[in-house]
Amino acid sequence: MHRLSGVFPVLPTPFTAEDAVDEAAFRRLIDFAVEAGVDGVVFPGMASEVETLSAAERGQMVAVLGAHLAGRLPFIVGASHADPAESAARAREGMAVGAVCAMIMAPPQAGQDVAKQVAFFTAVADAAPGLVIMLQNAPAPNGAALSPEAVAAVAAAVPAIRYVKEETLPCGQHVTRILAAAQGGLDGVMGGAGARFVLDELARGANGTMPALEIADVHAALWKAWRAGDKAKARRIYTETLPLLLFQMNFRVRATKDVLRRRGLLEHIGARAAGPKFDAGDLAQIGELIATAASCMTMHRPR
């Protein structure tokens, strides 16, 4: 497997007007990601409303992703679960349809105890031979919020862990510390946190970012500019889109889906996830923020 790097957006789960998972809309979003020029995709994750999906729905959509993607891009399957046996089962489910890696959150119930975290990830790896793991280090209460040194220690003890998704604050500093502590023992550290700190992460050695999907073409252009050494262009793109990403921090998947709707990529934008809903003022504000970012969008100009 080639080293994973670049922009790997987390795909949202579209729902029909009747609140069923929408396979047709999901295929359109997969095609958008491919056409946007990203380097891979992730599903399911927190931005997919994974906590609201049944096991059957989750398996159904992972299968749709593998079949429709058909090797056009690598994909990472989300396989987080408190039970290592369940986590391994979800990883195997993804591997069976083409996933090249499983993203698994360091479980909060193991806390800061490195030995417990090692035991958890070892059990997952043992139950899924050949598995490549991306350890997701997320803030509490969803994640364990491990220190960078603890992340590196867990990875060193579990050979299957080749990547880290780091999204505890301050993200940039933590990328630096993980890479220093790992001493070359990882294939890469990717940033999360909605790409709100992406330039700091890249400057500190991150090998990519894993944002939400709504401006995937913009993030692909930013990554391309950064890799080409055009940091001024990368910063311009970042500056023009950051206000929209900050707005998304409050409304999460509802903001993602509304941007995708305005770009003509979603019809129904219902969300199951908990969290604040838009009022009239929010709808006006997001329209203004999308307009600010629109010059960076290379396809599906917002309506």
Task: Write the topology of this structure.
Blueprint: E1 6-7, H1 23-36, E2 41-43, H2 55-69, E3 75-78, H3 84-95, E4 101-105, H4 114-127, E5 133-137, H5 148-157, E6 161-166, H6 171-182, E7 188-191, H7 198-203, E8 208-209, H8 216-227, H9 231-251, H10 253-262, H11 280-293
Parallel strand pairs: 1-8, 2-3, 3-4, 4-5, 5-6, 6-7
Helix pairs in contact: 1-2, 1-8, 3-4, 4-5, 5-6, 8-9, 9-10, 9-11
Please provide a written account of the structure.
This protein has eleven helices and eight strands. With 303 residues, the chain is of the alpha/beta class. The protein has a single domain, classed as Alpha-Beta Barrel (TIM Barrel). The strands form two sheets. Strands 2-3-4-5-6-7 form a six-stranded parallel sheet. A two-stranded parallel sheet has the order 1-8. The protein is globular, with a radius of gyration of 18 Å. The model has no long low-confidence stretch (mean pLDDT 97). Pfam families: DHDPS. InterPro entries: Aldolase_TIM (IPR013785), DapA-like (IPR002220). Keywords: Lyase.
